[in-house]
Amino acid sequence: MELSIEEKKILLKAARESILQEFSECDGAKINYTAFPKLKMELGAFVTLHINKQLRGCIGYIFASKQLFETIVEAAKHSAFGDPRFPELNREELDKVNIEISVLSKFDSIKSYDEIEVGKHGLLLEEGGRAVLLPQVATEQNYNRSQFLTALCHKAGLYGNYWKEKMLNIKVFTALVFSEDEVEVDL
């Protein structure tokens, strides 16, 4: 799926404004997205926050239960204030935050680890629980396929080489990824 520059701007603005609302710096005026059918589609998505290229929060929804626009608004708030790996974002950090959005494709089952294309595919593991790694994680961490699978196992609470013992129940997906670094947003 592709989004226009205007659609990307709307989603990035909505993400930032949803965080600003928590600091009472934004009145929560509704952004009109009704003219954009893709923003009303039910799609999984993640919002990732970075400060100085370091992860500061990342929350999302693997499977859609709301319109994409609403999913982004909710995920942005949770990334800033609900990621258990980090303290809540404070106001001083907000000006340094770069917001990145990942809109997920459908999921495809694989029969062999050789089907995983590092840098293109994200991974969803459903084996005694659920873990997900976005496609850009492999690129950002400079992972090869083995390292990507090991990281997925660790995230799922399994030992790293568990994937070598049997073919795990892994699904692959792609993501449309864009950020405020790439798309200038008028606030």
Going by CATH, the architecture of the largest domain would be: 2-Layer Sandwich
Helix content: 25-40%
What percent strand?
15-25%
Structural class: alpha+beta
Distance between the termini: 26 Å
Overall outline? globular
The secondary-structure element order is HEEHHEEEEHHEE
Largest sheet composition: 4 strands, antiparallel
What's the count of strands?
A: 8
**Structural domain count:** 2
Regarding CATH, which class of the largest domain? Answer: Alpha Beta
Please compute the radius of gyration using only Cα atoms.
17 Å
Q: Low-confidence segments, ≥5 residues, pLDDT <50?
A: none
Number of DSSP helical runs: 5
Give the strand order, joined by hyphens, for the main sheet: 2-1-3-8
CATH topology of the largest domain: Glycoprotein, Type 4 Pilin
Give me the CATH superfamily of the largest domain: Hypothetical protein ph0010, domain 1
Mean model confidence by pLDDT = 93
What distinguishing features does this structure have?
single chain, about 190 residues, alpha+beta, Glycoprotein, Type 4 Pilin, Dna Ligase, domain 1, 2 domains, four-stranded antiparallel β-sheet, 5 helices, 8 strands, globular
